[in-house]
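ok so I'm stuck.
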Amino acid sequence: MSRNITMTPKEKAERLHKKVNTFILSCVGEDGCPMTKAVVPGKHRESLGELYFATNTSSKFAKAISKNPKASVYFYSRKLIFVWKGCYLKGDMEIVTDMALKEKFWENKYKAAYDEQSYTDPDYCLIKFTPKSGRFYANFKLEDFKVNEHEV
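replied:
not stuck anymore, here's the structure
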């Protein structure tokens, strides 16, 4: 018996983003070329409206998004040979300076990477990604969607 659940592309993307273990972030590098890195998801994945990732303040990635906020995020799930689901999101990234947010997204597993072993370490960088639009892929089909329906 097959389940006939009608979900919007955004709902499918929301469901997928809460399950995957790796996100691919891309921004515009200082030389104008794409810069891409894989990251593990943060401990809070509330919605596609705002995604948060940790990196180092001293990284080339953080420097690049400080100069140009245009960015994208891709995440996917693969089961078997032909069963792929993926989502591409396009939007803007920014460096978070709010200490309450930095504390919220801090994880103990980060301690080994930072001298202060705390969210207060100057090299701990929290990135906020605000997507504007997305493209969900599953079953050989692409579906475009707006993340915030009121945006043009």
